[in-house]
Amino acid sequence: MTAQNMPERAMVLAAGRGERLRPLTDSLPKPLVAVAGRALLDRTLDRLVEAGIGEAVVNLHHLGEKIRTHLAPRRDLRIHFSEEDTLLETGGGLRKALPHFQGRPFFALNGDVLWQDAGQAALTRLAETFEGARMDGLLLLQPVADAIGYDGAGDFERQSDGRLVRRARSAAPFVFTGVQLLHPRLFESAPEGRFSLNLLYDRALAKGRLFGCVHDGAWYHIGTPAGLALVEEKFQG
């Protein structure tokens, strides 16, 4: 896939409760939390618009009407809402929205992700790197050492050809940023209802079909009120 074949559609995962940011998220969906005066969800949708993506699906559950109302004024892309009466988690939420993507690769982004590009836009880099014949998923990764506000052990190791493996030691060099390009093939034989996308990642890993692209800019992790304060201090944009 090249930039000329940029996916036309994307999904933004915005249904979660943001438990670790309570009490802020008791009354405000985490994707509507603002950094430098602009909601995280708007910043994510801005990136889609910049990449030329014309349609996005946003899933709703926790305080979903607030997200719907917040996005009502936007006219720069067409937004579809995927309502979840029961929270379906990442895998179930994406599976429910699959018909919107018409069997074509699509971007999937967490609604609370925040990143900056140092050079070429991350979404363009993903599109140029993606090869649908051998990839079921291409994840944008950040080196743990450069992840602002993140204190975890990392998620993946990356082989020389870009294939991913789960960490084999106590820590892994890369953390998943919440930005990815997926082929609908990843969801073949996926269960119905609530499940984590990690279930499908593990299947793709076993087949050697889950790949990673290393981000070349800044990435910010917002998990707690203290983390939010740190990001507010560090973020420039």
Features:
3-stranded mixed sheet; alpha/beta; Spore Coat Polysaccharide Biosynthesis Protein SpsA, Chain A; 7-stranded mixed sheet; 237 residues; globular
Description of the molecule:
This protein is an alpha/beta fold and 237 residues long. The protein has one domain (3-234): Spore Coat Polysaccharide Biosynthesis Protein SpsA, Chain A (Alpha-Beta Complex). The chain has seven helices and 14 strands. The strands form four sheets. Strands 5-4-1-6-12-8-13 form a seven-stranded mixed beta sheet, with helices on both faces. Helix 3 links the parallel strand 4 and strand 5 (78-83). The protein is globular and about 40 Å long. The mean pLDDT is 92.
Short description:
With 237 residues, the protein is of the alpha/beta class. It has 7 helices and 14 strands. It has a single domain, classed as Spore Coat Polysaccharide Biosynthesis Protein SpsA, Chain A, CATH 3.90.550.
Number of helices: 7
Summed over residues and divided by their number, the pLDDT gives a mean of 92
Q: Number of DSSP strands?
A: 14
Bin the strand percentage. Answer: 25-35%
Number of domains: 1
Radius of gyration: 17 Å
Q: Termini distance? A: 30 Å
Quick one: overall form?
globular
